[in-house]
Amino acid sequence: MIASLLAAAPALPLGEAGKYVAGAFVVFVAVLLIYFGIMAAKLQRMERELAELNAALEARARAGSGEPVASGEPR
Amino acid sequence: MKENGTRLRWPRGHLRHPMRPSMALLRKDLLLERRAPEAVPAMLLFTVTTFVLFHFGLGRDEVAGRLAAGVLLVTLLFAAILGINRLFVSEQEEGGFDGVLLAPIDRTALFVAKACALFLFLALVELVAVAAFSILLLGPSPWPALPGLILVLALLNVALAVVGTLVSALAIRTRARDLIVPIVALPMLVPALIAAARASAPLLAADGAGALPTKWLAVLALYDLVFGLLAYAVFDFLLED
Amino acid sequence: MHGKRLRVLSLATLAALTATFALVFFYAPLDADQGFIQKIFYVHVPVAIVTLIAYVVGGVFAALHLRTRDRAWDLRSYVVIHIAIIFNILGLVTGAIWAKASWGHWWVWDEPTLVSFLIVFLLFATYQPLRFSIEDPERQSRYASVFAIMAGAFVPLNFMAVRAATAYVHPRVLATSDGGMPSQMALTFVVAIVAMTLLFALMCTYEITSKSTSWQLRALRRRLLGDEAVAPLGRSAAPAVDGAGTGSAPARPRGTAEATS
């Protein structure tokens, strides 16, 4: 598939010029990936916090619906 | 106050004249500087010292043309930063801002007063600085260049005054005030520097002063106009507390 | 609430970027003057255009903030300028690569766009330090807006001044051997600009969504676990976001005054 792509592409002077053009496009993609990577890290942190909040909510719901337990007494 | 019951009459124009508050504030600043001069002498010393630095840094006995314009203008720009850093210090430390807020005046009067003060300080500094520059570093004679140079410096001073006052007010209430001023003001002044340098380079040319390029004077005037109007419009918002 | 917009924007951006890359490499003809190197243009110039327009838009949003006192505008202004700074860096790097490829130096003063790009970057790089150095959120937004307005007006002035000052030693010619920009190049160019604009809008939406979500999480946490479970707000350059995803002053928990002084 790559071969057919390259065949269809205009003659790539993969000497000096090609390296720089490739470099520019690589930088472009790299910046995008870095940005989305940072975004992904933030999202992960948010998911973790959501899970924690959910767990807290569960615990509260359970404590509220179960029989009131005095501290120290086994259920 | 008259005792026989006639109506109190204020002198005509008292507090109604739009420039009164600005003039009062300006007079205060000029008085302060005259009694205890700190900004102007410091800027002057700094300028002359920088000329000496340039001599050794560039390794040249004299400069002309573009190099001369560059050395002179960049030095003036840095000296102006010194003045800009200190512009609102007295207001900040002694409640001048509150005074302006409480008084029944347009707050922009403070902007006008400070910009005029800065303009005058810079003019004073340039008076001596250009003379020092001519003696120390300038190759060709300054006299033929002088009228054009005065015009360029006047326009540049307006730019420095306007941008400097605004950035100074912006920075004075932040934590890192004298760090913020240079890094914000200097890039903003680049177009003014470009125009001033291109305008004055032919004046200081080695083979006799050339004509003053009016294109660059127009650019500088445009810069002054745009930033002057903007700063005037926006200054109010800095004083709201 | 941002979700649907995000999805649409993502798809549009992906389509536009793919189209751009395809056009650049398979459709646009080779430049007569610069050859293959000219292809960098299709990234560098649209990024530059979007950046400069974004800075001006940031200034406009800031003016709207001062006019309407609605903190939402400050949030938009902040995000637009923030992403524009990232694009600015990208533009500078691709510009440097192009300069190296064309003339052998990583930097050339002859290119007015590149030079004014650098100056604009130096100015806007102070935006976040300025915001960070003001602790009171209301004053931070106000001062930042004043800065953004001045800086936004500065961008076109600077561009004109630098352009007038730069000698055109290496005139940039976007043409094939017939001279003039052929329609294929023009089409690729336009698609590239559209793609970069969409990308910019996408990143802004990501930013706002992310901020809005984390502020909502914080509010939720406070409601569920009480004031003590919430970490005190440190100093921040970014404006706060209320539950609706617009900007507003956060209700600071009692303890922060000591924590941040």
What does this structure look like?
- The complex is a heterotrimer of chains A (75), B (241) and C (261).
- Chain A is mostly helical and 75 residues long.
- Chain A has helices at 2-8, 16-65.
- Chain A is rod-shaped.
- Chain A starts with a helix and ends in a 10-residue tail after the last helix.
- Chain B has one domain.
- Chain B has helices spanning 20-35, 39-58, 65-85, 89-94, 96-102, 108-136, 146-172, 177-188, 190-200, 214-234.
- The mean pLDDT of chain B is 86.
- Chain C has 261 residues and is an all-alpha fold.
- Chain C has one domain.
- Chains in contact: A-C, B-C.
- Chains B and C meet through helix 7, helix 8, helix 9 and helix 10 of B and helix 4 and helix 6 of C.
Give structural attributes.
heterotrimer; A: 75 residues; mainly alpha; 2 helices; disordered C terminus; B: 241 residues; 71% helix; elongated
Q: Could you provide a short overview of the structure?
A:
The complex is a heterotrimer of chains A (about 80), B (about 240) and C (about 260). Chain A has about 80 residues and is mainly alpha-helical.
Strand and helix map with partners:
The complex is a heterotrimer of chains A (75), B (241) and C (261).
Chain A: H1 2-8, H2 16-65
Chain B: H1 20-35, H2 39-58, H3 65-85, H4 89-94, H5 96-102, H6 108-136, H7 146-172, H8 177-188, H9 190-200, H10 214-234
Helix pairs in contact in B: 1-6, 2-3, 2-6, 3-6, 3-7, 3-8, 3-9, 6-7, 7-8, 7-9, 7-10, 9-10
Chain C: H1 3-26, H2 41-68, H3 71-103, H4 112-124, H5 127-132, H6 137-165, H7 183-225, H8 256-260
